[in-house]
UniProtKB/TrEMBL annotation:
GO terms for molecular function: isomerase activity. Pfam families: ECH_1. Belongs to the enoyl-CoA hydratase/isomerase family. This is 2-(1,2-epoxy-1,2-dihydrophenyl)acetyl-CoA isomerase. It comes from Hypericibacter adhaerens. Coiled coil: none annotated. CDD domains: crotonase-like. Keywords: Isomerase.
Length: 257
């Protein structure tokens, strides 16, 4: 139910249960965890694309998997076992992550897309905080990422009204990076993934760490974190190359080290 491919320095994970709109089963989330662990362990990879097959990105938890919603204890166990490790692994990846959203991203699948660094979506795609429709609350990290991306007003509006937000609206709101025509999604995804894979991978990882820290740090703590991360960045081969290339008026050729 998960496809995992590597092409040069780009990894691609495709949610692949199209007849059920890629809704998540426990088994599927275990496969997702394993694929993310492989990505984390492969030093040759420099970007990850997450996509869905068929007409949806994903429809969230498979609501036919009864044990997931059986009881308070069961839901806690389900989240701890299947969702949280996947979302944590995704957030901790030291390469840029790109969600390529072809159709609806609902519930925990919206959370998965939000957990990526960048989101590019087809014009016909929609984002649905579906939880309230079934009397549940946002999970899969969506209550963390959504207000950080769009602010509390829109996060609460999307959650309480639980109506789909179009990709165009999502782009205007800053929920996603870019909305493209449907027939351009594949090529734009590929181009962005290539651009990221050719970038200064270590600096990207450190930049992600800086932004993740900024949610809880004071201004002073954040300045200290920036200094710490810049000290690490300046020691990389890519920083030496980047600065040298600028001074020599040529395009930098980053190695990811
Ligand atoms: C589905 C699903 C689905 C099963 C479509 N499950 N079959 C985490 C952990 C623990 C506890 C609970 O919560 C969570 C987090 C969550 O993610 S909760 C939120 C779960 N997701 C939803 O509430 C969305 C449910 N789906 C929908 O509302 C609709 O399917 C949407 C609006 C996504 C798409 O509507 P349509 O385009 O009209 O498609 P459809 O409804 O006809 O779906 C096609 C098939 O996929 C259909 O199966 P069938 O056998 O009848 O052809 C659906 O039953 C199935 N499917 N989502 N979440």
């Amino acid at each position: 139910t998960i496809l995992f491919e590597r092409k040069d320095a780009v990894a691609r994970i495709t949610l692949n249960r199209p007849d059920k709109l890629n809704s998540f089963t426990g088994g599927m989330l275990s496969e997702l965890q394993a694929a993310l662990a492989e990505v984390a362990a492969d030093p040759g990879l420099r970007a990850l694309v997450l996509a869905g097959s068929g007409r949806a990105f994903g429809a969230g938890q498979d609501l036919r998997e009864a044990h997931a919603v059986d009881s308070p204890a069961a839901v806690g166990e389900h989240l701890a076992r299947y969702y949280d490790p996947a979302m944590k692994k995704l957030a901790a990846l030291e390469i840029p992550t790109l969600a390529s959203v072809n159709g609806i991203a609902a519930g925990a699948s919206c959370g998965l897309a939000l957990g990526c660094d960048l989101i590019v979506a087809a014009r016909s795609a929609t984002f649905l905080m579906a939880f309230a429709r079934i009397g549940l609350v946002p999970d899969g990290g969506s209550s963390y990422w959504l207000p950080r991306r769009v602010g509390l007003t829109r996060a609460l509006g999307m959650t309480l009204l639980a109506e789909p937000v179009t990709a165009e609206q999502a782009e205007r709101w800053g929920l996603i990076w870019e909305c493209v025509d449907d027939d351009a999604l594949a090529s734009r995804t590929e181009a962005l993934a290539q651009q990221l894979a050719n970038g200064p991978t270590r600096a990207y990882a450190l930049a992600k760490r800086a932004f993740h820290g900024s949610g809880t740090n004071s201004f002073e703590q954040q300045l200290a974190l920036e200094a710490e991360l810049q000290a690490l960045a300046v020691g990389t081969a890519d920083a030496r190359e980047g600065i040298a290339a600028f001074l020599e008026k040529r395009t930098a050729k980053f190695s990811g080290r």
